[in-house]
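Protein: Membrane protein
Species: Streptomyces viridosporus
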Amino acid sequence: MTTATLRPRDRRISPVFLGILAVTAVTGWATWTGFAAQPGVAVFLFVTAAWIVSLCLHEYAHARTALHSGDISVGAKGYLTLNPMKYTHALLSIVLPVLFVIMGGIGLPGGAVFIERGRIRGRWRHSLISAAGPLTNVLFAVVCTAPFWLGALDGVPADFRFALAFLALLQVTAAILNFLPVPGLDGYGVIEPWLSYGVRRQVEPFAPFGLLFVFALLWLPAVNGAFFGVVDSLLNALGIHEFDTYCGYDLFRFWQETNGLCSVSR
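Structure follows.
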């Protein structure tokens, strides 16, 4: 019943998103065929565009789940159009995540759809709204890793394989970080409805700094090593070796000198 109140334009896919999707398709083709004169440029554009697509789908999942849980305001806010320009904080949802990918190969969890929680009844619904975003990253990771764990890599060009492996790493890191029970992240949003009112009031002031706290910890070598150890273990279990993700990141940073080892393996 909630979707019936939406205007058609509230659900129409944005040309902005379709444009990003087109960039993903074209640069993916260029990476696969080796059409680009500089393969690193094609890989950079392909991974970046695909990463932005996943960020849009992440926020869409939050909004769509909220819609079916009772918050019909998400339609008027443009959250169902997949247009990243409609997010409450486009800087946090798109620009910063892309910058962090460039700087360190980490899938920074975005977060900028404002859900009117007062319209939603039931703790399970609140938890599901928060979980919907990172679950989208999990699904995206499954799609990216499928050729590896299905053993369907015959005929897949090395550059495309490397790009896909690096994109999978971004999705896994984003899912793990999002599911951390830290205020301000989706993982905390999952458990928040089940906490007492007093605990929620005490934790609330720290929510804006939760993500900064997590990334400050990741700068510590011991924490960073443990985090990526978990990520590498998950990817290895899915058939992606560290060499693939390393070469994917190496190609992605096309402005740096390409590692000769990755070039020989193509």
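Remarks: Residues 13-257 form one domain.
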